[in-house]
# Entry
Amino acid sequence: MVKRRPDVWQILSLVILAAFCLFLLWPLLCLFLSGFQGEEGQWTLENFVKFFSKRYYYQALWNSLSVAVCVTALTLLIGIPLAYCTTFFRVRGRGVLDLLIIIAMMSPPFIGAYSWILLCGRSGWVTTFFAEHLGIDIPTVYGFRGIVLVLTLKLYPFIYIYVSGALKRMDPSLMEAAESLGIHGIRKITSNVLPLIAPTALSAALLVFMNALADFGTPQLIGEGYVTMPTLIYTEFVNEMGGNASFAAALAALMVAITAVLFLLQKFYVDRRGYNMNSMRAPAAQPVAGWRGSVLHILLYGVVLFSLIPQVTVIYTSFLNANRMVFLKGYSLNSYVLAFQTLGGAIWNTVRMGSAAIFIIVILGVAIAYLSVRRRNIITGIIDTASMFPYIIPGSVLGITLLLTFNKRPWLWGGTAIIMVLSLVIRRLPYTLRSSSAILHQIPASLEEASVSLGVSPLKSFFRITTVLMLPGVFSGAILSWVTVINELSSSVILYSTKTRTLSVAVYSEVVRGSYGTAAALSTILTVLTLVSLLIAFRVSGNDELHL
Amino acid sequence: MSVSITMNNLVKRYGGQTVIPGLSLTIRNEEFFTLLGPSGCGKTTLLRMIAGFNGVDGGELYFDERPMMNIPAHRRNIGMVFQNYAIFPNMSVRKNVEYGFRARKVSKEEVRRRVDEILDVVRIREYQDRMPAQLSGGQLQRVALARAIVIHPSVLLMDEPLSNLDAKLRLDLRGAIRDVQKQVGITTCYVTHDQEEALAISDRIAVMNQGVIQQVGTPMEIYARPANGFVATFIGRSGLFRATAREDCLEFADGSRIPRPVGAAVAPGQQVALSIRPEELSPAASGLRAVVRSRTFLGKSLNYVLEFADGVALPGYPPIEYAQDFTGSCRMYEPGEVLFLQPDLGRVNVFTEDLSRSLMEGGGSHG
Ligand SMILES: Nc1ncnc2c1ncn2[C@@H]1O[C@H](COP(=O)(O)OP(=O)(O)O)[C@@H](O)[C@H]1O
Ligand SMILES: [Mg+2]
# Structure
């Protein structure tokens, strides 16, 4: 019989499993358990009874679900036709259009919220213009309306990107077959295209739903008393600070339960209905001439430019002459000067903690992808599943979880960069991990074996062959992780201290204080940082599609 | 340089399933040895055990006298050629071929000389600066072959290297592999499920089924004297009949008789199986009575699918065929026509009724 030494990968998988247990599973377990505990630590359901008996509380859940349902429906209504048009009709400046859509997706929603307040808020420019010059009182943008507007414009790109990917992979001969059977126009779409893209659209819709449900910044800024689950959890947690936070924990548990059920339902549906579409021949884009063409272009660009209004507004505002709260006449760089003087550290913090997080994310992403694709066993299976958890855990819930666990002895990590980086890693690892395993599935295992057979040790073969070939996939995932890391708000706002304040946290707190000038300057810096990252990514990877 | 490979009672399990229940085999130094068997019979598994990619659950493996069980794959000094080529897509042809020297202490000039030489031997020198994406499947497999043998491995292992290529290329490369192997003189273990390929290329063949070696021998031995019914039907085509041995003939269910095949050790009254290849039959005035079901023209020959009286053919096997050389002036038979056939008594094989063992004298040696 042959003795087998445990190899590097076995040791690594145990280490990663231990890390997952310590930093994710154990804290979550503690959180859920404390949701079932009372003031003195006794087991009870009183937190849940309290939630469902007071209208103020259960209304938040209802509000969250209403927002999420509306936003999902609207994003589908915008995203699917948009994807259909850009796939099947020849559109001028398609590359630019795609880039603009990605920018709309990548910028944080709270910047959207804040710009719409600037425009259509109580003393917003549009509101004031209508009131002063036309004598019309247009409805303001606060509450449900504003939240849905902001989230729809931020999230429709997810639908667009997923669905156009699916349409591109759709075999045009299916459409041709439908036409040969005399099925045309709308019926061709409803009977043929929609069923085929349904699984993809559903995955994307779920992503939108979860994002809308979990978003904290938007309802907090623009909600004005329209309480949603994440804002409720935040308020309860901040109020209970020092107590045992069991009510906030119960709320968090409730939310995770909802998202988990949705996630599993979606997975069940897609697994059963997933068509294997793989077409070599991309559908041909038809030219659209005359007035139809003009209408098409006006509509497409209209939607996309409308969704970019927040970015434009913020950048414009940042150059206005402002004195913290009030905008003065003319233009200046005052806001930037002020921003750098008081909050310059935030920029450095964003870059510093973001880089640390991305470094860990890339290493973990590659290692876990390799383990779960090439070394399948029970341990790597658990790791693979656990690494999906962050998809269903809202940022604010994760923030609370980590703080409750690691602000105690022996850790005492509250307010440190460690806990910030930890939450960034957990939240944004999935992007890099997914795209790393996707590319690894396309690299034959025999390449590494060929290298080993030629006398190069397995570990060296892994670095010389496999990692090199994985780079493109790792890179596109890492860019997505990076852009979402630097824009992260919902967990950071719970975990930050004055020493670890990031750009997005700074924007948020400046908006809350009403310092619109500095907020705009910081937002602009964040937008530019995001844009530069994306452009570098496109340049390096040589195409304008991110592999989601 | 090159070594012999000895396997002693090797065992491989996947979970609860035993894929190789205990296999012994010796591959001689410098010989071209082929593992032949249907898909899923464990050829790849065995080859990867020799390579060191698969763990061994029991038994022993030696290169010459050196035990290999505890030596990791990268220290076994093997050359391996994969079905999907496994050429590193990010390196040029030359870089691919040079790759193995990264793990070996060989001077720069020596590397250049040996790479140049091998590129000539497999005739890909003109492509040496191309990237793999610009090469065809056949060229890629030549690169893989060069890359595997340039390092002077002790054994060369190939897992269905031709099965992703089209028919014409397969023939070309088959010849190239054979030539290179003889030129370099390296012990080679070659895996294929294609019996024609195995017959054409090998010094010796081991026929495998369900993880068990059925027969080891030269291509001619295996073709002419299969050790059992599985080998007889897997190598080439064989029609199987059921017969009863009489004093000096074999009697079939319909009462027809043929003389006892040469070298068949059967006792009177014994139930046997008779295996006859399509080309071992010829029409005669008397013999086995058959009705022509259909006719196929194959160029070199005409193939007839035959039907016999109930109980003549062994049930559960493909229909029995007769191959008639096509000479242009031969008499062709039409579907529905009745003909009588005599087997070539020096070539047909007799097995026990359950097909498990050959009854031919000196025929069908086991591993
Ligand atoms: N990694 C594995 N895990 C479980 N079963 C396997 C594995 N690899 C091969 N097998 C099983 O072992 C048997 C032999 O496989 P293989 O050696 O690949 O056959 P061949 O190469 O002759 O086609 C098959 O039944 C296959 O399903
Ligand atoms: Mg195989």
